[in-house]
Write a structure and sequence with these properties.
229 residues, 5 helices, alpha+beta, elongated, 434 Repressor (Amino-terminal Domain), 27% helix, 2 domains
């Protein structure tokens, strides 16, 4: 008879294989990222110097990119695509289609993974596109066991990522169970609450677009420094 631990390990392996198979399916799309960039640039009749000027990247770096002699970060690729006027999603492989309808909760094995060309770096997106409002506070909420934080609401958006433990997120009348690696993104104006079990708490990394605490500016003297003479 298979024990509980064996069942859990089997389930974890199946999830991992499912993700790996999905990723391999799209991975072949961007082996020739340098050639694609060069083709778009030449179609526009641009020199490398012209692309360098428009993207604020060096000519030497772009030359290496086009010959696949270096790897691209998502920041550099974004600059190149903006300069060329092409959608960035045409230039990388991903674990799932771009632009899927956003959801409140994104389980760890359903988060969008992006890999650019032959780069060893994988970018993992915890949510869909965030609003234009900048993140005002970044904090870790430490929920103890038996926590019952009742529904409340505030302005802006709230993004959360479970670092440790597990908890239930209630958004209006809908309950979402979150574990390590899961994330959520909600309009914070919707009433929401957090609940942990009798035996386990949770640490949640939160990014919010509303500032909760206004810290007054401090003079150098109040920070322990000396006033300029």
């Amino acid at each position: 008879m298979m024990g509980t631990c064996d069942v859990e390990m089997k389930g974890s392996r199946q999830k991992l294989l499912h993700y790996q198979n999905r990723f391999r399916y799209t991975e072949h799309l961007m082996d020739d990222i340098g050639a694609r960039i060069r083709a778009v640039r030449k179609d526009k009749g641009w020199t490398l110097d012209a692309l360098a000027s428009k993207s604020n990247l060096s000519t030497g770096f772009l030359s290496q990119v086009e010959r696949d002699l270096t790897t691209l970060s998502i920041v550099s690729l974004s600059a190149i695509c903006r300069a060329l006027g092409v959608p960035i999603e045409s230039m990388f492989s991903s674990s799932s289609p771009i632009g899927e309808p956003p959801s409140i909760v994104t389980l760890a094995d359903q988060q969008l993974h992006i890999q650019i060309g032959g780069s060893p770096i994988t970018y993992r997106y915890l949510s869909g596109q965030l609003p234009d409002a900048p993140v005002q506070e970044l904090l870790i909420a430490e929920f103890p066991p038996k926590c019952r934080q009742q529904h409340s609401s505030h302005e802006g958006q709230e993004l959360g990522y479970v670092l440790r433990g597990s908890l239930k997120l209630h958004v209006r009348d809908v309950k979402h169970e979150l574990h390590v690696g899961d994330s959520y993104c909600i309009p914070a104006s919707q009433p929401h609450g957090y609940f942990t079990s009798e035996t386990e708490g949770a640490d949640v990394l939160m990014a919010v677009t509303q500032r909760f605490i206004e810290i007054p500016s401090q003079s150098p003297q109040s920070r322990g420094g000396k006033e300029a003479q």
